[in-house]
Amino acid sequence: MGPDPVRSVNRQQTQIKGDSMKQQVVTFIAAASLSLSALTQA
User: Can you give the residue ranges of every domain in the chain?
Assistant: First the structure.
């Protein structure tokens, strides 16, 4: 029974890490598309 809470906490931490990584990728893609549209308009 002892190691179960630790496992769930680890799972939560990895999920949070994945969410922040997903957010970084989305932000990067948004910035890239913005710069691309600016380049094509220039």
Answer: 14-42
pTM strictly above 0.85: no
DSSP category for residue 2: -
Q: Which two tokens stand for residue 24?
A: 């970084």
- Give the pair of three-digit tokens for residue 30: 């948004």
* pLDDT tens, residue by residue, 7-36: 888 888 888 898 999 999 999 999 999 999
The Cα–Cα gap between 26 and 17 comes to: 14
Q: Give the pair of three-digit tokens for residue 34.
A: 């913005």
Residue (of 27, 13, 37) closest to 5 by Cα position = 13
- Report how far residue 25's alpha carbon sits from residue 5's, in angstroms, rounded to the nearest whole number: 30
